Structure formats: structure tokens, C-alpha cells
Amino acid sequence: MSNKVNIFWFRRDLRLEDNRGFYKALHGKHPVLPIFIFDSEILDELPKNDPRVSFISERLQKMQQSLKDHDSGIAVYQGTPEAVFKQITSEYTIANVITNHDYESYSLVRDSEVQTLLESKGIGFYTYKDQVIFEKDEVVKSDGTPYVVYTPYMKTWKSQFKTAVDLKNYDCKSHFDNLLKGTSLPFLTLEDIGFEKSDIRVPDFDISPATIKNYQATRNFPSVEGTSHLGPHLRFGTISIREAVRKAISEKNEIFWQELIWREFFMQILWHFPKTVNNAFRKKYDLIEWRNNEKEFEKWKSGKTGYPLVDAGMRELNKSGYMHNRVRMLVASFLCKHLLIDWRWGEAYFAEKLLDYEQASNVGNWQWAAGSGVDAAPYFRIFNPTTQIEKFDKDHIYIKKWIPEYGTDQYPEQLVDHKMARERCLKVYKEAVSQHIV
Predict the structure, then answer these.
(1) Core-most of 68, 76, 78, 241, by most CB within 10 Å?
(2) How high is the pLDDT of residue 145?
(3) 239-295 pLDDT per residue, tens
(4) C-alpha distances out from residue 48 to 5, 56, 194, 197, 198, Å
(5) Which residues pair with 75 in a beta bridge?
(6) Which fold has domain 131-169+205-272?
(7) Which overall architecture, per CATH, does domain 276-432 show?
(8) Mean pLDDT, rounded, of the chain
(9) 161 marked as part of a ligand binding site
(10) Is 265 one of the annotated binding-site residues?
């Protein structure tokens, strides 16, 4: 048994710089052993070539190389977190385990179980806010209740930000002398955990001055490279939210800044209303009689609905793990309202495919599309998937990129008539809403 160490547990914060929890660990009085756990509870549900797992593995290798330069390393394990900590506590004398907050439903249960185990062994468990600027109930109404509409939340967020936020850059690297030195640590590769390298790559993020400056003008057009691709990097913490906000402020782009606030809005909704993962926020929408036609769902998934902008979006998702945000709104609305397929089916498919999948945003946006969520579009707002082309891809550049057979007799006929589907949707939704008893 060695002298006491502190463990820093990397999760959704895969970076060695501007990492609040890591910074706090490095300021403790014991050497720091960094670890990462490939959680078997999560891995067992994923395909063996999942691009997100590839991305995590590659990121860990980069972190490992940087730590080697300081005669240290990161220990990478596989298993349930509880089992892994049982192993680690048998190998080291641990004073504390430090990590950053995670807010998703599974994470809360996992952390509670780990904390119980550690406390039974006299080990401290400390977590810090790192992946958001404001969390939980830090931005609420004057009466203490949560905001359920974005705009007033955003205004209060900004008001509090101006007076109460320090966008400190947590300089971890200056304190690497407090890392555990010269120890041979387990480091599991992608192959070691039974996965293979994916052909899908996570694109680098772009928060250059030009991208942020032009963001408002270009972000709605899927054929234009006008988005930052920050999503996966915020999801896995390869960039800190503080750096992203600092950049938005320095370039004075309110729209870009507000997109970052949307993410926190949905996170606090999930925190206050965890049941929205499986249930409509507006309960009356759980009374909708979904058609849930499995054949139509398969055609939607594969991009063969006969509606080009919908199909291009789904094919982009399947091929790249990404879909332009404007198109996401359309394909989600189409599934829920044109096909009357439960939003939970779509949410689950996006969770399987999206590189930037975050539970709070995914659930929030799908409920928005279905009309059942907070700040939702009214149920009678039904996007016309044909006129959307004229607005956002009038030259068909995006469509032709993802649908090579577009304009030929190989392209499928429309799965459903828009006018008929719209009328059917209105009828079904109206019946559901009228049945609701407050």
C-alpha cells in the first residue's frame, strides 16, 4: 500500500486545462491519480464501432501523452464504476475522490452509489460545477420556482452573469507537480475494451472570430459551413464552457451566446423535472394516440420518406453522426406530426446516432418538436417540409449532397400527403388536448 493519494475521476471533462475539479484536486495535499472508467453499463448498449467511444479513446491517448511528459499518466479502467472503485481502493490508500458534477438521471444514481461505497471506507467524495455556468436552481424566478420558458430564463441568466460570474481559467498545468509520479498504470485501448475504430470522425470545433461573427447569417442554411461544431466538445468536455462563453463575449455575438444558454436552460429543466425523460412535460400530450407505424419509422430512419429535406437530414445523421440544427427541427416535427410516431422513438434514435447527444437537450428539443415540452411550439404549428426547402436549401445543394438519386425515378414517392397528414395530426392532437382534465 502506498501513501495517501487523491483520485481525480475524468468523465464529461476530457481536458487537462481549465478543468475546475481537476484544478481543485491538484491543489490538495496528496498526489493526484487521474482515472477514467469505460462504464460497462453504458458500453453494453452501444455498437462496437460507436464513434463516440472512438473519440473518447483518442482523447484519452492525447491526455496520456501529455501526462507522460510530466512522468505521470491516467489510469483507464473498464467495468461498473462501483466495481472499479472497489478495485482501486484495494490498491491505493485514498484520501478523497474528486470529480465534476454530472446531471443526467443515470449519472445521479451512479454517483450516489459510488459515494456510498467510498464513505463506507472513510473516503471523501467531492464534486464541482464545471460543465455549465449556472446549474440546478441557480437561475430561478423571484419566488424560487424554475423557469419553463426560455426567454425570461435567458434574460435572468444574463442579468446574473453580469454581476455574479467569474469566468476564471483554471490553470491546471502549472500544478502538474502534484500528480502521482512514476507509476505503471493500466491504460485500456479501444481494442482492450472490445471496440473498434469508427469510420465516423468527430469534427474539430470552430470558434474562430469569422465563424462567430457570421453565425447569425449562416447558421440556418445546412449547405453552408456556418456552425461551430461545439456540440460534441461541450458534451465530452474537450473544451470548457467558460472558454466558449469567453469567446462569445469577446466577439460580441448575442445569438451565439444565447445558443449556449439554451443548453443550460434544458439542463435545468431536466434537473427540476427528471420525469420528462419519459413523460411529456405538458401531461395532456401523453394522451396522444400515436400511430407508431414501424415500417414508416424505418423509412424515416433510413431517409426514404420522399421528402427531400427530411431524407437528406436523416442520411447525414446516419453517415456522419451529425445533423444541421435547422434540419433537426424539421425531421423531428415530421416524425411526430406527419407520421404521428411517438417523440420518444425519435429521441432514442437520435441518442443512438448523434455525436453531440446530451440527454437534456435531446429530450428538450424533441418535446419542443412534439409540442409537449416547455416553451413548446403550439401543436398546430406543423412545418411544411416542401416550403422549408425554399427557405433553407433553395438551390438543393444540401439535398443533392446527401441524396444522389434525387430527381431520378430511384427516389421514393412521398410516404404521406402533407395536407392529409396535417389535418390528421390536428385532429389527433385536438382530441388528446380536449380529453385532458386538469
Answers:
(1) 76
(2) 97
(3) 999 999 988 888 888 888 899 999 999 999 999 999 999 999 999 999 999 999 999
(4) 34, 14, 7, 9, 9
(5) 35
(6) 1.25.40
(7) Orthogonal Bundle (1.10)
(8) 94
(9) no
(10) yes
Cell of 384: 411544411
User: 42-70 pLDDT, tens per residue?
Assistant: 999 999 999 999 999 999 999 999 999 99
The answer to whether 59 is annotated as binding is no
Residue 1 banded pLDDT, cuts 50, 70, 90: very low
Report the C-alpha gap between 234 and 237 in whole angstroms: 5
**Residue 285 among known ligand-binding residues:** no
Q: Is 383 within any annotated ligand binding site? A: no
What share of the chain has pLDDT > 70, as a percent?
98
Average pLDDT over residues 130-146: 96
What residue spans define the domains of the chain?
5-129, 131-169+205-272, 276-432
Q: Is 236 assigned a ligand-binding role in the annotation?
A: no
**264 in a known ligand binding site:** yes
171 Rama sector, left if φ>0, alpha if ψ -120 to 50, beta otherwise: beta
**Residue 62 CA: distances (Å) to CA of 202, 400, 404:** 15, 37, 37
The pLDDT value given to residue 163: 81
DSSP-assigned beta bridge partners for residue 6: 32, 96
Fold category of 5-129 in CATH:
Rossmann fold (3.40.50)
Q: Would you say 259 is a known binding-site residue?
A: yes
Was 262 annotated as part of a binding site? Answer: yes
> Do the annotations mark residue 266 as ligand-binding?
yes
Q: Global pTM?
A: 0.94
> Can you state the angle between helices 81-91 and 105-120, rounded to 10 degrees?
30
Which grid cell is 438? 386538469
